[in-house]
């Protein structure tokens, strides 16, 4: 039986982000409080009798097999597994998923009975956890392509809390100890002597699960990529990435299909001179060990870029978090207004 503190904490965390819409079945889960939530977990989700629910989090998730479909999920961490209780609209979102999700209960569609898919990743199958830049997301990797999930928390606090809870639960696992490590100096531990490049910072947990954090070079690579996209010749040394945040772009296009969400996931990058929106691949990189070929698309694809000097005003909504910002740019086809003025009007 969980402590009162844990029940209270899980109840507080059981809240769907206001800007995301979910199906009736997940609305039902979000309405559960206290011991009812724990009983629901044991009665409907838990696979063994003696597992304990330790943490609950609402997050958007991406699967390796379907990298373009972001779906809302209730993520439940127990002492045995990580459960992803998925929005049932996800199953019908992509025709390529028929082999990934074996749908046997399609006759329930028209009844008042709400069905949710639950994806289970057992802790014993967990191999590594990659934490994204500035803790905006993390990717959980198991032993095959079916067992790779990215949680897009878009919130460093939620990411940090989940990683802490996951480490605590992994410490309870009885796994055979790793062989004794050979003493290494700092450079052989963190760097490759052949290339002189620093590898990503790895923390190997006592359960032998790797926790991989990005290093400074990832920001350097991102700055280089951003400099490539900028029109002006920018000195890479002076280019600083001031902000990297996973956000949504609000799509006001009324013509778009009614089923598509008006919120389009984007990575916002702010430099001292420009504001960029990128479409980022959050699940394919770094490449899993079993990947035979590189992903079909680049990690970052430029969706929009504007100069800060063309920014006319920023409109701020009054609602609570998440805040809506509207950037109004005063650029005429991205051309400098003072360009060649003297030559046109005062020349011969």
Set down the secondary structure blueprint.
Blueprint: H1 4-13, H2 24-30, H3 34-45, E1 53-63, E2 66-78, E3 81-86, E4 117-122, E5 128-131, E6 138-141, E7 148-152, H4 156-170, H5 186-190, E8 201-204, E9 210-213, H6 216-229, E10 241-250, E11 263-271, E12 274-280, E13 300-307, E14 311-316, E15 325-329, H7 341-346
Parallel strand pairs: 5-9
Antiparallel strand pairs: 1-2, 1-7, 2-3, 3-4, 5-6, 6-7, 8-9, 10-11, 11-12, 12-13, 14-15
Helix pairs in contact: 1-3
Account of the 3D structure:
The protein has 348 residues and is an alpha+beta fold. It folds into 2 domains: 4-101 and 111-173, PH-domain like, CATH 2.30.29; 216-329, PH-domain like. Helix content is 20%, strand content 29%. The protein has 7 helices and 15 strands. The strands form 3 sheets. The protein has a 9-stranded mixed beta sheet with strand order 4-3-2-1-7-6-5-9-8. A 4-stranded antiparallel beta sheet has the order 10-11-12-13. A two-stranded antiparallel sheet has the order 14-15. A hairpin with a 6-residue loop joins strand 6 (138-141) and strand 7 (148-152). The radius of gyration is 24 Å and the shape is globular. The model is unreliable at 192-198 and 337-343 (pLDDT under 50). It is found in: Cytoplasm. Its main location: cytoplasm. Pfam families: PH_NISCH_C, PH_PLEKHM2. Residues 114-178 form the PLEKHM2 PH domain. One of its GO terms (molecular function) is kinesin binding.
